[in-house]
């Protein structure tokens, strides 16, 4: 089975959702991942259904807001409500950011994560980029989520390749550690010099081609989402954006089809 390649609307967050959705359809992507934010357009099922029907392009993942979002709720309640929206709209996957270091991961997994998963969709916990602790007394007290080992036992996971690069983790090691739990992938590149870069695939040093080839030859059940940043995509120029979106899509598809058994 061919792995679908989709486009995260968060890659071009300064633009309107309608415009980004239309560019994804015109570029030939297999679907979109909607990044929810403070705009109601990203939260309302009727409008999401409208975009899906207008562009004949499915929404294959939903990413809850990085901050409070249009609902203006706490992250735990937002996660559960996002899963409820995904279920009602027929969206199969919700990407979940774990709590930051210093907050007990086990308590979060036993309460809001469990409640969100009870909505009947896959809620895939994302590996995070390693950062410096903000509070001295939080060091070593609780698990973080920047190492793949931190996600073991948490059920479905999202593997973000840029976060792997920012955490100075070997990508193939991260994949082999989490392969049995892997439900979703965020694809972008990194030059491995630090920071969460979300570069265009092929414009960094991550082994993305062998990673995608290995993924294609596995029983991976999910999609690959291109999650980039606006400026590597050429923002604000629409022609450059479209050219680079198509180039990133071609990179992913060629790597997924390379040496398939």
Task: Tell me what the structure shows.
This protein has 261 residues and is α/β, with parallel strands linked by helices. The chain has a single domain (5-257), classed as Divalent-metal-dependent TIM barrel enzymes (TIM Barrel). The chain is 36% helix and 14% strand. The protein is built from 8 helices and 8 strands; from the N terminus they run βαβαβαβαββααβαβα. An 8-stranded parallel sheet has the order 3-2-1-8-7-6-5-4. Strand 7 (182-187), helix 7 (208-216) and strand 8 (224-226) form a beta-alpha-beta unit. Helix 1 (17-27) packs across helix 8 and helix 3 packs parallel to helix 4. It is globular and about 45 Å long. The termini are close together.
Count of DSSP-assigned helices: 8
CATH architect. name:
Alpha-Beta Barrel
The CATH homologous superfamily is called: Divalent-metal-dependent TIM barrel enzymes
Helix content: 25-40%
Give the topology string: H per helix, E per strand: EHEHEHEHEEHHEHEH
Overall mean pLDDT stands at 93
The CATH topology turns out to be TIM Barrel
Q: How does the overall form come out from the CA principal axes?
A: globular
List the helices and strands and how they pair.
Layout (H helix, E strand, L loop, with lengths): L4 E4 L8 H11 L3 E5 L9 H11 L3 E5 L11 H15 L3 E4 L8 H13 L4 E5 L30 E4 H6 L4 H8 L3 E6 L20 H9 L7 E3 L11 H20 L4
Parallel strand pairs: 1-2, 1-8, 2-3, 4-5, 5-6, 6-7, 7-8
Give a quick summary of the entry.
With 261 residues, the chain is α/β, with parallel strands linked by helices. The chain has helices at residues 17-27, 45-55, 75-89, 105-117, 161-166, 171-178, 208-216, 238-257; strands spanning 5-8, 31-35, 59-63, 93-96, 122-126, 157-160, 182-187, 224-226.
